[in-house]
Write a structure and sequence with these properties.
With 1890 residues, this protein is α+β, with helices and mostly antiparallel strands.
Length: 1890
């Protein structure tokens, strides 16, 4: 003990100390505790230091606190220290921090009312808990319900779920959810909706039995025990309800802030309804019984709506409207009765005023007499031994009698409703077992406790005793199973308290005795109690200050009861005369309420229920059954005690499951925890007693594997042995010295309380020491690494620094030297530049100076030169002027002198002439002179001639000069004139100049003014420009901003539009997927209804014919018995039989089933009618367009029929020719074959017969063609009016108007049909009658149709098209005739060849075998040679090429033939030897004549392989055999391994092609119907076999693709080869059947998904979550009483490898079956969704899985799944995206969760998770080791605030039942149908290839 104290109470140890406010408060030791210390030095969590004094007498130490790692556990028994503060703290942490309302406490489920609606009760949660072990999931009411359901099926023992708690704790809700779970999981054995009725009873019972109290708005004021019955297959068959102690006093009295029962307020709220007018109701405040609480309204509750719900529930339970109105009538009468005012008449009597309105309404509603009721309300009848007399009642007693009557009526009504509910829930199916749900009041203690509280606490005493015994029993069984020494555990036995209440002379006994006393009273009863028990029983006490009360020490607490009212409530007396008045009522329902007890038990007269169900109603003794008038004399206490005893017997006969509901606070605040109230209820409900019983023994229990996994760190390597059990023993002996602290069982180790904490401390210390050592080593390693890095860095830095310094020095020296050199050159350069500048300046100055001097000298010389020139010119001018003047003066003087001399001479001559002498003198020497003159004349002539020459030249020069002078003169004259004019102009110019100067001055002034204005304007303009520039700058900025804004807005709008487009696209995709899902769900529902219908028919057949004993149905046997009934539309007898069976079945089915099926059928009929109306509307529109041409159809159709008849006659003639040829062939064969060789029975004769049979078969084929043609003619004649018409007939108007004869029109029409059948013209042909009608009709007025003439142009184009069509028609006709001639020639050649072959055959039959082979080869060579000689020889090169190719082919064929010959020779030798051996024994019986024929053996002449059309022929009677061999009895494994994928689909389609070829619509319809029904049947029979489902999914899809590929539609034909296009269907459009097959494929796909889900479901949780793929990452934590599935991989445990192997198996199977790759991708996507959804759902429901290490495991597992996808090339199928929520959840477990940045990162990371899922994971996050930290509440609220704006579903779990809508993309096959061979193993020898 001392060592334990030293270990436990040391410094830093945490303890719990009592606290008046919080009950318990946590503190930490600041000093070690030593033995004998009386004070503990503590420090509270808020930092306050405290000295806690120990009790000096007991020295009891405070409770130790559990390690943080154990806080928040799912099971309280997992706590190491089991005591009250640990339990309270664990519940508080789970409730407040983790928002978890459920917690296990051993076998008890503790449920805390959250006062808030939580999303944890949906269908997805039910599916998640279904089939799970109770310890594998987080605590939940569904887990308890599943455990009860599973134990019922496993142990075949009835179960009970006991739900208890005080008012407002949530008992009713818990019981309701338990029943909902049973109704959802089990379903019902029939379609009577039993589960819906069970759930529908809840609103009724809440309306009539629940009321608002101060503690609860919907408090159950009665106890109920509901038995839910199950059949052998554990489907719900019915239910039964038992009620206890209805609080009748609430009908007449309610405390403040309370209400009466809900049904009264619902009636008042619905009083305005027309059907309630007769009840004369008003508001709740108008009636005394509903207004006493002064608060008639509950927040958030609409009483009118609740009334509608209640009435709907009544209707669902089969209570008719008449009965409902009767019930409401009684309830309204009770309200009116409460308003009856009783007046005082005198002191001892009372009265009711006449015509009391409320009493009159009461009497009218109840159908009783007003006088009788008013009289007996104020009087009572007293009976003595001799006489009877009537006594008036005082007012108080009269009011009490009135209230007693109201309570009695309501109690009867309550009982009647319960019994009718039981009747509605009763089923005719035999009950095999049941699960009971007990919703009963918990322990109650108030300030004033009366008779109701006494009964309630008495019932809780009984239940607590049963609970203690059960817990004790379980503990004992556990210890004995593990073979641990059993020591009696002392636990509280409340049997003395029960004896005090119910034993002889107990409280109830004395109460009943006092009630039988004539003058018994509460006071006298109290005195009897004091006298009897006060001194004898320690549990009974008397209050000090009261003589009318007593105290009982219950198991939970002491309760003081007030004796006042006990007797009255126990008697529950009612005036018998009032009852008689009511029984005399005319109101049938009221009379039924007050019938005898036997009749009340079964109001409808039904017998007792079968199936061994326990009767729930309490009957009186048989001896008192006739005393109906005294039934109320039985005391309430006795009735309650008897019913409680029956309840205890029922519970003891079942396996109980306990749910304890806790009310966290009295104010109904959401998630608010009041420790005081919680502790009070924990003590009262027995949870702490469970803890105490567990703690008294060995509460902590570990399996050896779990202990080894958890505490492996405490072991050394040498301690680990192969035997885990011995290893654990050795380690424990070393770790725990006291052997009493643990015990070793067979499979578990049992620990005392506190030992797990001790081991956890050792483990934490070891891990902490290891962490410190690891940290030390790592820090040393890091420091050394850091030092070495620093050292290396330092050395490197030094090296680099020194090198840098050296480089810097060298650089400095280089730079110094360079600087000197630079300075030298720089200085030299400067000086040189300076010199050069000075030199240049000097030179420039010199140059300038010299130039200046030169210029000056030049100017001077120039001036001198110019002066000389001027002087010269002036002097010359002066000289010339002087010369001219002198010359003029001399000439003038000469002229004057000569004139004067001449005048003188003239005068002299005149005088001489007048004298003769003078003449004589003049003639003296005249002759000489004449001679001289003559000579002179001659000389003169000579000179004249010279001169004339000169003169001529001079004249010429003169003329030239004169001309020049004249021109000069003219010029000078002009210049003179110009000078004159210039002079004039100069004057005018001067005048103008003066004027201009004046104007200039004025202009200058104006200019100056203008310049000033311009300057001002310029300044203004500059200012304005600057302003404009600024504005422009601003506008540019605004423009840029606007452009940027426009760009941004444009980008935003673009992004927005893109997002909108993307969203719209995604929305459309979602809508499409939803529509597909809805359609596929409808198909699933339709299939389910069909299966249920078939099952019901089978069951009814079995029931009607031979009743067989029912078999026990296990959990896995959920499928119905397989039916051998096959639906066949062609068997009328089967249909009649099924109709007859259906009529019989309908007669026995439950009415609810019929109504549901009728409702479903009506909905389907409405949908069908809507579609039919739409189809009729469209057909009507189409018919209107065709109605005008029906008459002409019939006329023109005759031409086509005539043509068809001609064709038929031609075929018949050809048939006759073939018959004639056949007869000739037979005669020729008979003639050529010898009598001996071709005798009947001979081999040659058999060979010939085979050949003839083959020819006969060909002839039969021809016959069938004729029959087909005839059937086509008949069908076309019948369906003439259903053909579509062509509207484009204008193109044939002009060219066909001349065709007046019907025959010509029919020929043109047939040519047009042939043209339209070509690929270029795929439109349907125009009917002949319509063509004639439209051609003969008057042409329309084109101008009225189209004024632009466009239609006329179109018409011209159509005429050209018509001519082109006509030419094509003629060309086709010519080609057809040419082909016909060629075919006729070929036919003749074939006939000749046939004749020749027959001759050769007859010859070969005479030869021996070897010679036959040689002859046949020779014949083949000859035939090929002849064919080669017949080849065209127009092109020799082509001919030679063909010859060479043929020679090569022939050589290859010869080699093959040689091999074949050698092989056949060997076989012939073997066969010949065998035949010889056989003939040896038969030689005696062989005649000589037969010996002659011995060498001749039957030989099969090889026939030339004919060209198959890819069809399979079968007979009508072989259809069933085909379906049976190919579908029903086919083994998928053999077909998938040995044959081509999809072979059954190809075979079925080839059979369908032949039926289409025959134009046999019945055969097509029958085949398709049989195939579809057979596939459905085989899937129903073997629907759980994945291989079968996958096989038929692949074949159904292949069959569907074949129907599309060969349908003839363009969209599908483009993928075909030309040969495949020839194989298209020619007569039938099977589009509707394609839809049917598509629906069938969808159903098969959904069946495949369900099959895969059933296989994968058990593997997912174990492989993805529980199994440790990475060993050692996570440790096992203590799990308490309910152990979870071990994460260690045992032999039977699924691992991740199991999942991967299963996925690979699925994939390989589908690939082997030839499933389309796109379909495989969809299947894999669905598989991964199931894996991700199931894993995430379990993660969200398992607190132990939400840890960092588990997140690491999940991410590793997901990576393995992704690797599998990569290996299979399936990464693009969308499967990875389905795992995104799981990946994000795993990342969420691993990321840091502290700061706001972490919250932001989580919000951005977890976009695939909803807010509820994120918050749930954070709430569930649990540290596995002490080094991890919990997520704070603040951080979670931060996450919630950041995710507040998310628009998402509030759903917590993913729906694992979701199936993505499947699509079947068209996948054409390249396989040629004619190449398909049918294996013999399929037993399809009756099929013939065509």
């Amino acid at each position: 003990m001392n060592e334990e104290l030293e270990f436990e109470f040391v410094k830093y140890a945490r303890v719990w100390i009592p606290d008046p406010d919080e009950v318990w408060k946590s503190a930490e030791l600041t000093k070690d505790y030593k033995q004998g210390d009386g004070i503990l030095h503590l420090q509270l969590e808020d930092g306050t230091n405290l000295q806690h004094k120990l009790d000096p007498s007991t020295k009891t130490l405070p409770h130790l606190r559990n390690p943080d790692i154990l806080v928040g556990e799912n099971d309280l028994t997992a706590l190491s220290y089991l005591h009250e503060p640990a339990v309270l703290h664990n519940l508080k942490v789970r409730f407040i921090d983790s928002k978890l309302i459920y917690t296990y406490c051993g076998i008890v489920l503790v449920a805390i009312n959250p006062y808030e609606t939580l999303p944890i009760y949906g269908a997805e949660i039910i599916n998640a808990y279904s089939g799970q072990n109770m310890g594998d999931m987080d605590p939940h009411i569904f887990a308890v319900a599943e455990e009860a359901y599973k134990q019922m099926a496993r142990d075949e023992r009835n179960q009970s779920i006991i739900v208890s708690g005080e008012s407002g704790a949530g008992k009713t809700v818990s019981a309701k959810y338990a029943m909902r779970y049973f109704a959802t999981v089990s379903g019902s054995a029939s379609e009577a909706n039993v589960e819906e009725k069970v759930l529908a009873s809840n609103p009724i019972m809440e309306a009539i039995g629940n009321a608002k109290t101060t503690r609860n708005d919907n408090s159950s004021r009665f106890g109920k025990y509901i038995e839910i019955g199950f059949d052998k297959r554990y489907h719900i068959t019915g239910a039964n309800m038992r009620t206890y102690l209805l609080e009748k006093s609430r009908v007449v009295f309610q405390a403040d802030e309370e209400r009466n029962y809900h049904i009264f307020y619902q009636l008042c709220a619905s009083s305005r309804l027309p059907e309630f007018k007769a009840l004369k109701l008003g508001g709740a405040n108008d009636f005394h019984y509903t207004k006493q609480g002064r608060n008639p309204v509950i927040d958030g509750v609409d009483d009118a709506r609740e009334m509608s719900t209640t009435r709907s529930a009544f209707s669902l339970l089969g209570i008719t409207e008449l009965y409902q109105m009767g019930l409401f009538q009684v309830l309204a009468a009770i309200l009116h009765l409460g308003n009856v005012d009783v007046k005082d008449r005198d002191a001892d009597s009372s009265m009711i005023l006449p015509n009391n309105s409320h009493l009159m309404v009461f009497c009218d509603l109840m159908g009783v007499a007003y006088q009788d009721m008013s009289h007996w309300l104020c009087h009572k009848k007293l009976k003595t031994a001799t006489e009877t007399y009537i006594k008036p009642l005082p007012r108080v007693q009269a009011v009490n009698a009135r209230d007693a009557l109201a309570k009695h009526i309501y109690a009867k009504l309550f009982t009647w409703i319960v019994e009718h509910i039981n009747q509605a829930l009763h089923s005719t199916v035999q009950q095999h077992s049941f699960i009971g749900v007990l919703d009963i009041y918990g322990f109650e203690t108030f300030e004033i406790n009366s008779f109701e509280q006494f009964c309630i606490n008495y019932a809780n005493e009984k239940l607590q005793q049963q609970f203690n015994m059960h817990v004790f029993k379980l503990e004992q069984e556990e210890y004995m199973k593990e073979q641990i020494p059993w020591t009696l555990i002392d636990f509280y036995d409340n049997q003395p308290c029960i004896n005090l209440i119910e034993a002889k002379m107990g409280v109830l006994d004395l109460l009943d005795e006092e009630c039988r006393m004539p003058k018994g009273s509460d006071d006298s009863w109290a005195q009897k109690l004091y006298n009897t028990h006060l001194k004898t029983c320690a549990l009974f006490q008397k209050p000090r200050m009261s003589n009318k009360a007593f105290i009982i020490q219950h198991f939970a607490d002491k309760v003081e009861y007030q004796c006042e009212g006990f007797l009255a409530k126990n008697k529950d007396t009612v005036n018998e005369e009032q009852i008689h008045v009511l029984k005399a009522s005319k109101f049938d329902l009221l009379v039924e309420l007050f019938q005898d007890e036997e009749k009340v038990t079964s109001p409808t007269g039904a017998g007792p229920p079968t199936g061994g169900r326990t009767r729930l109603s309490v009957k009186p003794d048989k001896g008192k059954s006739s005393q109906a008038s005294k039934e109320h004399k039985k005391t309430v206490g006795l009735q309650f005690r008897n019913s409680l005893q029956l309840l205890m017997e029922t519970l003891n006969a079942t396996t109980p499951h306990y749910v304890r509901c806790i009310k966290p606070n009295d104010y109904k605040y959401a998630f608010t925890f009041d420790p005081k109230r919680a502790v009070q209820q924990l003590r009262a409900c027995g949870v702490l007693e469970t803890i105490r019983i567990s703690a008294a023994g060995f509460p902590s229990r570990w399996t050896y594997q779990e202990f080894f996994s958890r505490y492996r760190v405490l072991m050394k390597q040498k301690d680990v042995q192969s035997d885990k059990k011995m290893t654990c023993k050795n380690v424990l002996e070393k770790l725990v010295q006291d052997p009493d602290k643990y015990q070793f069982g067979k499979t578990k180790i049992f620990f005392r309380a506190g030992q797990v904490a001790y081991l956890e401390k050792l483990r934490a210390d070891k891990l902490r020491a290891a962490c410190i050592r690891i940290q030390k080593t790592i820090r040393c390693w890091l420091a050394r690494k850091k030092f070495l890095r620093v050292k290396r860095a330092t050395i490197t830095i030094q090296r680099h620094v020194r090198g840098y310094q050296a480089r810097c020095l060298a650089t400095f020296l280089r730079r110094t030297r360079a600087a000197v050199i630079i300075q030298k050159f720089q200085r030299m350069y400067v000086q040189r530049k300076r010199y050069q500048r000075m030199q240049a300046a000097a030179l420039a100055v010199q140059c300038i100076l010299r130039a200046y001097m030169a210029r000056q000298q030049y100017k001077m010389l120039l001036r001198e030169n110019k002066a000389i020139v001027i002087q010269k010119m002036v002097r010359g001018w002066l000289a010339r002027q002087w010369y001219r003047r002198s010359l003029a003066a001399v000439v003038y003087l000469q002229c004057c002198v000569r004139r004067m001399c001449a005048r003188r001479q003239l005068k002299k001559l005149k005088i001489e002439a007048r004298s003769v002498e003078h003449y004589k003198k003049l003639n003296i020497g005249m002759e000489n002179k004449i001679m001289q003159l003559q000579r002179r004349i001659d000389e003169q002539n000579k000179e004249n001639r010279v001169m004339s020459e000169r003169l001529s030249s001079a004249e010429t020069a003169h003329a030239t000069e004169g001309e020049r002078m004249r021109r000069e003169l003219t010029r000078l004259r002009g210049a003179e004139e110009e000078a004159k004019s210039s002079a004039n102009r100069v004057v005018s110019l001067q005048e103008e100049l003066e004027r201009l100067r004046v104007e200039l001055q004025s202009t200058q002034k104006e200019k100056k003014a203008i310049e000033d204005w311009a300057q001002t304007y310029q300044d203004e303009m500059e200012k304005m420009i600057s302003e404009l520039k600024e504005q422009n700058h601003l506008l540019k900025n605004e423009k840029n901003d606007l452009n940027r804004l426009i760009q941004e807005q444009g980008q935003q709008w673009t992004e927005k539009m893109q997002r909108a487009l993307k969203d719209q696209t995604s929305q459309l995709e979602c809508d499409l997927n939803e529509e597909r899902s809805r359609y596929q769900n409808l198909l699933t529902e339709h299939l389910r209804l069909e299966e249920k219908y078939d099952d019901l028919k089978e069951e009814m057949t079995l029931t009607m014919n031979v009743p067989k004993p029912g078999h026990r149905r296990t959990d896995s046997a959920h499928s119905s018995n397989e039916s051998e009934y096959t639906y066949n539309s062609e068997l009328a007898e089967s249909e009649e039989l099924s109709r007859g069976m259906e009529d019989v079945t309908k007669g026995t089915l439950d009415m609810a089933l019929v109504l549901k099926l009728q409702k479903r059928v009506s909905e389907l009929e409405q949908e069908k009618q809507g579609l039919q109306n739409e189809l009729d509307r469209r057909e009507e529109q189409f018919q209107r367009a065709r109605a005008r041409d029906d008459e002409e159809h019939k006329k023109a159709r005759g031409a086509e029929l005539e043509y068809e008849s001609l064709k038929r006659q031609e075929l018949e003639s050809e048939n006759k020719k073939l018959r004639h040829d056949l007869g000739e062939m037979r005669r020729a064969l008979v003639g050529t074959a010898g009598a001996g060789s071709a005798a009947p029975g001979s081999p040659a004769y058999k060979v010939l017969l085979d050949q003839l049979n083959a020819s006969t078969e060909e002839l039969e084929v021809r016959k069938e063609e004729v029959l087909i043609l005839r059937s086509q003619l008949v069908s076309q004649k019948e369906a003439m009016q259903h053909k579509e018409t062509m509207t484009d007939s204008l193109q044939y108007v002009e060219d066909v108007q001349n065709l007046t004869d019907a025959k010509e029109i029919s020929q043109a029409y047939m040519g047009l049909k042939d043209t339209n059948r070509s690929p270029r013209y795929l439109r349907k042909p125009l009917a002949v009658n319509e063509l004639v009608n439209r051609l003969r009709a008057p042409p329309p007025d084109m101008r009225n149709i189209n004024e632009d003439g466009e239609l006329w142009l179109v018409y011209e184009g159509l005429k050209e098209t018509n001519r082109l069509l006509e030419s094509q028609l003629q060309a086709q006709r010519r080609s057809h005739e040419a082909e016909l001639e060629v075919l006729r020639g070929e036919l003749q050649a074939v006939k000749e060849e046939n004749h020749r072959q027959q001759q050769l055959l007859a010859q070969n039959l005479q030869l021996p075998p070897e010679a036959r082979i040689e002859a046949s080869l020779q014949h083949e060579i000859t035939r090929l040679t002849n064919e080669n000689l017949m080849l065209p020889t127009e092109d020799p090169k082509v001919y030679r090429t063909n010859i060479l190719r043929r020679m090569i082919d022939l050589l290859e064929q010869v080699e093959k033939q040689d091999k074949t010959v050698r092989k056949l020779k060997k076989q012939l030798k073997v066969f010949a030897k065998k035949i010889s051996d056989l003939e040896g024994g038969q030689m005696e019986n062989v005649s000589p004549s037969q010996m002659v024929d011995e060498p001749i053996h039957p030989v099969n002449i090889p026939r030339r392989e004919k060209d198959f059309q890819g069809m399979l022929e079968y007979k009508k009677e072989d259809e069933l055999k085909l379906v049976k061999n190919l579908i029903l009895e086919l083994k998928p494994r053999g077909v998938a391994v040995n044959m081509i994928p999809g072979l059954p689909a190809y075979i079925l389609f080839m059979c369908l092609r032949h039926a289409d070829y025959l134009n046999d619509d019945q055969k097509v319809r029958a085949l398709l119907t049989s195939v579809i029904n057979s596939i459905k049947k085989i899937l129903k029979k073997r629907g759980e076999d994945f291989e079968t489902v996958s096989f038929w999914l692949a074949n159904t899809c292949r069959f569907l693709h074949c129907l599309k590929q060969y349908s003839g539609d363009e969209q599908f034909m483009k993928y075909n080869s030309p040969k495949q296009n020839e194989h298209c269907l020619s007569n039938f459009d099977l589009a509707e059947y394609r839809q049917v097959l598509s629906d069938l494929a969808i159903q098969i796909y959904q069946q495949l998904i369900k099959c895969m889900e059933n296989i994968l479901q058990p593997m997912i949780v174990s492989g993805m979550l529980e199994h440790e793929t990475i060993q050692g990452v996570s440790g096992v934590k203590p799990t308490g009483l309910r152990k979870r599935t071990s994460s260690i991989a045992d032999e039977g445990t699924y691992t991740l490898d199991s999942i991967l192997r299963q996925l690979s198996s699925f994939h390989a199977t589908m690939c082997q079956h030839g499933t389309d790759p796109e379909l495989i991708k969809q299947v894999v996507k669905q598989q991964f969704y199931i894996i991700g959804a199931v894993t995430l759902n379990n993660l969200l429901l398992r607190k132990d899985m939400c840890s960092w290490s588990k997140g690491m495991q999940i991410r590793y597992n997901v990576s393995q799944l992704e690797e599998w996808l990569r290996d299979k090339n399936l990464m693009v199928c969308g499967a990875k995206e389905t795992l995104e929520p799981l990946i994000q959840a795993a990342q969420l477990l691993q990321v840091k969760k502290k700061t706001d940045e972490d919250a932001e990162a989580i919000c951005s990371m977890c976009n695939a998770l909803t807010t509820a899922q994120i918050v749930k994971v954070l709430n569930l996050y649990t540290p596995v080791n002490a080094f991890e930290e919990r997520v704070s509440v603040t951080f979670i609220r931060t996450i919630q605030n950041r995710l507040r704006d998310r628009k998402e579903s509030p759903q917590l779990l993913l729906d694992t039942k979701v199936i993505y809508p499947v699509t079947f993309p068209f996948s054409p096959s390249s396989l040629a149908l004619e190449t398909i061979q049918i294996p013999g193993s399929l037993n399809l020898g009756f099929l013939t290839r065509v």
